[in-house]
């Protein structure tokens, strides 16, 4: 059973669009325009069929709109300049395969934070079909809001995890990143990192250099049950190294949800799609975390103008990242007299 109110909205849109086609007389309407209108009808009808009443997410809004975006923007504006005098920033790194949307997520976050009628593309992203990471340095990214406020969070953007264990992101390199051994804005040199030398390697990192939140980025089209996926294997293996009584906080982002059945025209209703909840459930089980720690997002690729729902999704994920990192920092300093770090 679908939501009656939403169904009525869809039916009204469908009938209105069909009326446009009829009123324009098909034989007098350019073929391209007819195709656009018919494609719009198909997307609306597909949305009507996919959105199900029984899909319920705890603590997630039923519908995403500009009100949700404004609420989260206000939360970010109220953040302090620093979380702790010894660890001013929440340090975050994202792990994921090549081309899964790590840098695109940063672009979407910047677009949402700036709250302008334009899409920001500050970070170099990979083509949609590629096997090579565009990120060549361990980039330190500061996030600013419209008005210049710098948020107390730093992203350290890593190259994508690929299949080549010998020259790139093996477990020793990933663990070194998490523990703060790799300097921000340095050339990412896996050989130096593994051998613990060079300009990019920090020999004696402190807690303020370490990562306070690790975000695993997985594409929605990924087959989580595929046993031979090297990226998924590395994610589980690195979890095995960092999990423990004082483990660094971990979250997951599921990208490209627009490729599994959620049209951009209906993104505001993303939490009513069973396909989205199914893949997020699979990711939660795979990474052994609760569903509320897995955030679906749709980044900007071919879009020309911002989308309120996409902005809201990115801000919701970013807020959870900030809160998790802040809790990790506070927990550390609450136990500062314990020699366990």
From TrEMBL:
Domain of life: Eukaryota
Domain G: 92-235
Chain segments annotated as coiled-coil in the UniProt record: none
GO molecular function terms listed in the Swiss-Prot or TrEMBL record: GTP binding
PANTHER family cross-referenced by the UniProt entry: INTERFERON-INDUCED PROTEIN 44 (PTHR14241), VWFA DOMAIN-CONTAINING PROTEIN-RELATED (PTHR14241:SF32)
Protein name: Interferon-induced protein 44-like isoform X2
Species in which this protein is naturally found: Crassostrea virginica (Eastern oyster)
Gene: LOC111114658
